[in-house]
Design a protein that fits this description.
With 249 residues, the chain is of the alpha+beta class. It has one domain (7-247). It has helices at residues 7-24, 90-95, 132-138, 197-210, 232-247; strands at 30-32, 44-45, 48-56, 65-67, 85-86, 101-108, 114-121, 142-151, 159-172, 175-188, 193-194, 213-215, 218-225. Strands 2, 3, 4, 5, 6, 7, 8, 9, 10, 11 and 13 form an eleven-stranded antiparallel β-sheet that branches. The chain has a two-stranded parallel sheet with strand order 1-12. Helix 1 (7-24) crosses helix 4 (197-210).
Length: 249
């Protein structure tokens, strides 16, 4: 008999198998373009000032990352090499389907702390959204710890997000440099939020089978530097609580 710990996974895989069969036999599914998030990041979150990012994909370009507000009248071309700019890095662009929605901003705090916020919105292909751990590993990060944390929210139940402790080292002329960071994320559908990719897949299959609709899902990530004493966690909770009403519909 399956243990209680394994029963949720069995339900998920069974439902996904049913969904695959239903789709294979021509279930008519309506694609719903209205996402559960606003693809626009606020310019300010209390004392944090945000600047949207653009990326040049030219390998020979001297500077490959720009702030949108520093580009002037021509925000579509790299001021260094003249090639088109993108709203995601080349690594992200190569890994994601081309109809994936993406927006990313850097927020600078009063003491020069940096927090990066990104929203990834699925297109027609399901590969637009996947477990962020795949990307972190591909970028050379080591994941030291994963845990679900709760973000107190005004007027509703706490928001649950996945928090990953990351670590990475770079070789420099002065020797190796180590970076300790955090990466928090959660998935957003139509009226649903979850830190679990299994839960997202469950609801995706449920809506296809039961309601014959396919909603666009998004995942929101918030990342920054992790200080040794853990003080970042209170700041992260407060930041997400203020960010959430601006982007989740």
């Amino acid at each position: 008999m399956p243990s209680a710990r394994h029963k949720p996974l069995i339900v998920v895989f069974a439902l996904l198998a049913v969904a695959a069969l239903a789709l294979a036999f021509g279930v008519d599914v309506t694609l719903v373009d209205q996402p559960g998030v606003r693809m626009e990041l606020p310019e300010r979150i209390e004392e944090w000032a945000g600047r949207e990012l653009r990326y040049c994909h030219n390998e020979a370009c001297a500077k490959r990352e720009f702030f949108l507000d520093e580009l002037g009248a021509d925000s579509e071309h790299c001021p260094t090499c003249g090639q088109p700019l993108h709203n995601m890095s080349k690594e992200e662009y190569d890994a994601l389907p081309k109809d994936t929605g993406f927006i990313k901003s850097r927020y600078l705090g009063p003491n020069d702390e940096q927090i990066f916020v990104a929203i990834v919105l699925s297109g027609r292909e399901r590969e637009s959204i996947h477990r962020p751990e795949r990307c972190l590993t591909a970028q050379g990060f080591t994941m030291e710890k994963r845990e679900i944390v709760e973000i107190p929210m005004e007027g509703r139940a706490p928001l649950r997000v996945m928090l990953i402790h990351t670590q990475r080292s770079w070789d420099t002329p002065k020797g190796p440099v180590s970076y300790r960071g955090y990466y928090a994320y959660w998935f957003v559908g139509q009226g649903r939020e979850t830190p679990s990719d299994f839960a997202r897949m469950f609801w995706l299959a449920w809506d296809r089978i039961v309601h014959s609709v396919a909603h666009k899902w998004a995942y929101i990530s918030v990342s920054g530097t992790r200080d040794p004493d853990g003080a970042y966690l209170d700041e992260l909770r407060r930041f997400i609580a203020r960010l959430h009403p601006s982007i989740v519909l």
